[in-house]
Amino acid sequence: MADVILAAAIGLIWGSFIATLVLRWPAGRSVRGRSCCDACGQALGVRDLVPLLSALARRGRCRHCGAAIDPFHASVELGAATIGVVALAMVPGPAGWLWAVFGWLLLPLALLDARHLWLPDRLNALLAAVGLLFAGPMLEASLLDRWIGALAGGLALALLGWSYRRLRGGEGMGGGDPKLVAAIGCWIGWQALPLMLLLASLSGLVWALATQGKGDRPLAARRVPFGLFACIAAFAAVPLWLWLSGR
Fold it and tell me: Where is the Prepilin peptidase A24 N-terminal domain (predicted)?
């Protein structure tokens, strides 16, 4: 129980940083320095920066100017806390902590792709490096298995994108998607990779069909945030693979 509470607390703190990152980085704003109100620019003190609690105490408004605080902050904080709670409640011990870290590193990539169709190389590289260095105990995948997963996943998505360009004469996949799948392979290895890709593909297809009539562009011309679905599928594939493999 203590691990679950600790994971929730870490998730809240990490989520606060991730929300700031996702809001500022695409706009070209620095994520360094003191946090400030987006409306009035006033620097925030310690009592304004306690995840969730500060916003609740101020009823979702800035203490200085009264402007509404973007609810995106609280949503991301809750999401990151939920990742930690789910991981440690379902998979106790080191494997659970690794699963939580996996989810926390996937979170900013999922949000950036959902909001901006952008998968930064630096975040993909961070995900890959941490996976190769530490992820072995999560699914008991050897370093060789994870290297194979990275190469197989990245090359498969790159080949798919290249084939689409040759056949259709346009871009069918963003350049960050193969890198993301390669980075995910660094965590789950080649054995669980097909499961992750299946889940991601099905999720993307369901989303595309569900939103088919909500835009003025035909389905074939719409851009699907595949990275978002890959991140969700990668996190979900961990307990599914543990169950399927009888571990």
Answer: 10-88
Nearest CA to 87 out of 73, 100, 68 is that of 100
Single pTM value for the model? 0.90
What CA–CA distance (Å, rounded) separates 236 from 192? Answer: 11
Residues constituting the chain: 247
Tokens, residue 123: 């975040």
DSSP 129-174: HHHHHH-HHHHT--HHHHHHHHHHHHHHHHHHHHHHHHHHSS--S-
- Pair of tokens at residue 149: 């997963």
Residue 211 is predicted with a pLDDT of: 79
CA angle 2, 6, 12 (to 5 degrees): 150
Is-contact 37 62, C-beta < 8 A?
A: yes
